Amino acid sequence: MKKNYMLLIASSLSYFGALAQPVLNSTDFNYKYSANVYSGNDIPGLSAGKAGANKTWDFSAISPLTLGGTSSIVPKESTPYQSSFPLSNFVVKSTYNDNSPTYYSYNTITTTKLESEGGADSDAISQEVDHLTIFEFPYTYGKTFTDSSQDVGQSSIETITATYDGYGTLITPYETFTNVIRVKSQDTRYSSSSIDYIWYSANPFKTLMFMTLVSDANYVEIYTDFTTLGLKDFAANSPVRIYPNPVNNLLNVQIENKLVIDKITITNALGKIIIEQKEAANQINVENLASGLYFIEVVSGNEKMQQKFIKK
């Protein structure tokens, strides 16, 4: 995975105008998601598609891709380099399957912008003299901004120009997302033919895809298998079990009598609530759900337990 200002973030979005164009504000952030990241290099015929309103970007045929690692939002206090980034309040942790060291990206969110403070791993700590702006709030369709930063001890200056250049539907080999925004970004340190594109989803907001295009090469990352953090998975000795998994029609929920169930919720991979009930149940009818990945969450008092299941 590419070590840059890429963020995996979650939020709700507000909208403006008759065309329902997504608008991102500082108050929209929710830091409770992790994802697997698949990546590929030099993919034949790769193109970012067109900018504009109500576009469809179809990357369902992208191949080959390999699981490169994971990306997740973590508490700053749990990270090993927090003292080097005192202003940060939003940290992205990236792990890699090629045995590269775990990388932490430290960022700061204010009411007007989201900025990068730098990053660190076991090899080096990179601090920015002038923090690089990632988003300016409110971030609306068509907005362009330019910002510069410089790492401590380095002579080169990084200048990024970013434009919110489109919104619509994104189709990846793993999922389809609607209400997606795209950002086009260019670093002036590199050739004018090198351009980055980043796609984000709404409801909740997440990084979905990253692409670098140059004249003779390309690189892509696709984020999938989003998981809500801070919830306890059903363990083998848990008082709650679900079966069968995958399921066709009836999902069985086995609960010990002493456990008081306050609520059972089923959400899809985008976090949208599909089924919600406030009483215990031995079975839940999922026959009408579309095939795909879902999450069932059981709430008992202050405890939340979650597990994935597949609807055939």
TrEMBL record:
Keyword Signal in record: yes
Record keywords: Signal
Signal peptide start-end: 1-20
Domain Secretion system C-terminal sorting: 242-310
Matching InterPro entries: Secre_tail
Protein name, UniProt field: Secretion system C-terminal sorting domain-containing protein
